[in-house]
Design a protein that fits this description.
This is histidine kinase. The protein is α+β, with helices and mostly antiparallel strands. 55% of the residues lie in helices and 17% in strands. Bound molecules: adenosine-5'-diphosphate.
Length: 259
């Protein structure tokens, strides 16, 4: 019996040491995560101010009739670059805010006009690649609790991705539906699709599929991370169905306001 007690004490000691070790590791990871988050927030804030002045001065240059053809092209290229940079900075700030918990007061937001406006904005880029965009929206009742700004991000990312990853000459379908207690946004494309092993990871920050077809499209890998965080915060869920070379369907379910 004495031997048993000794053995038990020994293994309890090992367990306690392991526990202490794990506890220390968890603390270290927390500190690192906190550091990463502060770094991202500080850098994004610091980039935002000079970017605003770059964009402002570019607008002045753009309106200058005296520019040579060469300078005009240079201004256009800088404008494209700074627009892209502004988008990344904005996405990083949104992601940081969402990671810190919900900030801002939620209220009833009608998704239908947001979806309609987003589809309109995407018609130009879609048309240039011969992609047909169909949309079906309910006339009333697609109201959820949230903030318009964050819901706009969700819709813009999903509709934008459907067009971006569709095949040239293909078709994108955006449907907003009501069930008894949910508002469902369905975005379907007939594009490159997502391999089964990538389907969970696409919602991670900065994850971009290694597929060369996907990599050839511009992106930061932040869009779906934002979508998932907003949807989680609002008590909804997101589903993905996809097959490589066939296309993808993203479905966002959000509780209908007042249900
Ligand atoms: P981004 O499009 O900026 O790379 P996202 O977070 O929106 O970032 O998407 C992450 C990755 O998921 C993309 O890089 C792409 O590989 C994949 N993906 C997202 N939407 C689609 C889609 N509709 N069809 C195929 N792949 C997609």
């Amino acid at each position: 019996a004495a031997l048993d007690i000794g053995r038990d004490l020994g293994s309890a000691l090992v367990t306690a040491r392991n526990f202490e070790h794990e506890h220390r590791l968890v603390e270290e990871l927390k500190t690192l995560a906190d550091y990463k988050s502060r770094l991202v927030a500080t850098v994004s804030h610091e980039l935002r101010t000079p970017l605003t002045s770059i964009v402002g001065y570019l607008e002045i240059l753009d309106g200058d009739d005296g520019l040579s053809e060469h300078s005009r092209k240079a201004v256009a290229a800088i404008q494209r670059g700074s627009t892209r940079l502004s988008r990344v900075v904005e996405d990083l700030l949104v992601l940081h805010r969402l990671a810190d918990g919900w900030i801002g007061t939620t209220g009833p937001v009608d998704l239908a006009p947001i979806v309609a406006a987003t589809v309109d904005l995407n018609l130009g880029p879609a048309g240039r690649r011969g992609i047909a965009v169909d949309s079906e929206l309910p006339t009333a009742g697609a109201t959820v609790l949230g903030t318009a700004h964050d819901l706009e991000h969700v819709v813009a990312n999903l509709v934008g991705n459907a067009v971006k990853y569709a095949r040239d000459g293909g078709r994108v379908q955006i449907v907003l539906e009501l069930t008894r207690d949910e508002v469902v946004l369905r975005c379907t494309d007939d594009g490159i699709g997502i391999a089964p092993e990538d389907q969970d990871q696409v919602f991670e920050e900065f994850y971009r599929s290694p597929d060369p077809e996907a990599a050839s499209r511009q992106g930061t890998g932040l869009g779906l991370a934002i979508v998932r965080r907003v949807v989680d915060q609002l008590g909804g869920r997101i589903e993905l169905e996809s097959a490589l070379g066939v296309g993808s369907t993203f479905r966002v379910h959000l509780p209908v306001a007042g249900s």
